[in-house]
């Protein structure tokens, strides 16, 4: 190879490398940060871009599409000292590439850590029941809290979603035991209430029966008084009908007494007529 040919090849290689370093095609959805002699110079937008070879250098290539950041599961202690597990997912977008690369070392890791610490702070202000039932409230406060910090890093937080929020295994066991104890307590209360209502109903039944018995006795007494009054009015001073009625009652009573199981001997008065007259107080 002659010296002239070698020089020509070297020049062609130099020109090719120079063109390669000076021409840049940036894809849609990306922006490149260019440094000149180690200092920020410009940002390349999508399309064809020309640089000064050997002076300009593409230092960073950023994706301007939405970035999905998965925030790992962590333990969070609530205000009433309950331990819960929670994780999240964030959707962020690079809106200022210069701040994104020069404002923080790793903006993805920074946003992820900011979400974790903010999430612990928000949940730490809540009690267990409130934390488990306030997913939307936590989400809104979380997005609001990190939005300002994200702007300083050239980012826009489009959304933060709480993927999961649940009690830890130990808390789940404790909650299950508490739920079982509560069910047993309610069962005992229900049983006691049932016994109480049964006793009340039984007492009311006895009271109602006693009232009805008393009314029946009063009515029976009134009927007897009415019967006596009518008999008295009918017989007047005649004792024979009255003696007949009393004698009939007396004999029926004696028969009933004689048929009783414990009765062995029934003594009848020798003069039944005199005995009946003695009952009505007439000689």
Automatic annotation (TrEMBL):
Residues 21-179 form the Band domain. SUPFAM superfamilies: Band 7/SPFH domain. It is a single-pass membrane protein. InterPro entries: Band7/mec-2_domain, Band_7, Band_7/SPFH_dom_sf, Stomatin_HflK_fam. It is found in: Membrane. Gene3D superfamilies: Band 7 domain. This is SPFH domain-containing protein. It comes from Thauera sinica.
């Amino acid at each position: 190879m002659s010296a002239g040919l070698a020089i020509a090849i070297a020049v062609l290689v130099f020109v090719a490398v120079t063109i390669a370093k000076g021409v840049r095609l940036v894809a849609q959805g990306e922006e490149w940060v260019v440094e000149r002699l180690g200092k920020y110079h410009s940002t390349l937008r999508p399309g064809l871009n020309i640089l000064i070879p050997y002076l300009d250098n593409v230092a960073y290539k950023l994706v301007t599409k939405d970035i999905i950041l998965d925030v790992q599961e962590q333990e969070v202690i609530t205000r009433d000292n309950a331990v819960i597990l929670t994780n999240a997912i964030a959707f962020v977008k690079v809106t200022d590439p210069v701040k994104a690369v020069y404002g923080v070392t790793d903006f993805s890791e920074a946003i992820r850590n900011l979400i974790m610490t903010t999430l612990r702070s928000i949940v730490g202000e809540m009690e267990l029941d409130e934390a488990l039932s306030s997913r939307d409230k936590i989400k809104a406060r979380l997005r609001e809290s990190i939005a300002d910090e994200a702007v300083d890093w050239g980012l826009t937080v489009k959304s933060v979603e709480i993927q999961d929020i649940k009690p830890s295994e130990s808390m789940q066991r404790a909650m299950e035991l508490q739920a079982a104890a509560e069910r047993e307590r309610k069962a005992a209360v229900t049983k006691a209430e049932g016994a109480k209502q049964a006793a009340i109903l039984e007492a009311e039944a006895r009271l109602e029966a006693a009232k009805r018995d008393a009314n029946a006795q009063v009515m029976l007494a009134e009927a007897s008084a009415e019967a006596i009054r009518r008999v008295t009015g009918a017989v007047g001073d005649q004792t024979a009908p009255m003696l007949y009625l009393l004698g009939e009652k007396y004999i029926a009573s004696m028969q009933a007494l004689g048929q009783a199981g414990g009765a062995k001997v029934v003594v009848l008065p020798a003069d039944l007529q005199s005995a009946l007259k003695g009952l009505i107080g007439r000689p």
